[in-house]
Amino acid sequence: MIIAIASDGLNVSCHFGRCSSYSCYTVEDGAVVAFQNMPNLSRPCSEMAPLLRELSVDVLIVGSIGSSAKGFFDRAGITVVTGAEGTVRDALEDYLGGRLDSTDAVCAIDC
């Protein structure tokens, strides 16, 4: 499974469309086996969902995301987990440990 976290430095970005990069973790049997940081290419959300799907991303963890952007990811088959905050590493560990529940909240800002 590949988990992408919208990030600003070491922290979860408060908004998907304005993040500086995506911290991408490959997880096998509950353990991280690979990491890659991908800069935000400043592409429209309609292009980012298929791009992340091509990279085999299964889950996107974000602070918040606009409703139309979330729809692009839903249609691409990528699970969107909203409401994450704090460090990227803590968000990843919370998700893997079953302690990060999506708030399902969307924001008024869309990319």
From TrEMBL:
The Dinitrogenase iron-molybdenum cofactor biosynthesis domain is annotated at 9-96
Identify the domain of life.
Answer: Bacteria
Per its record, how is this protein called by name?
Answer: NifB/NifX family molybdenum-iron cluster-binding protein
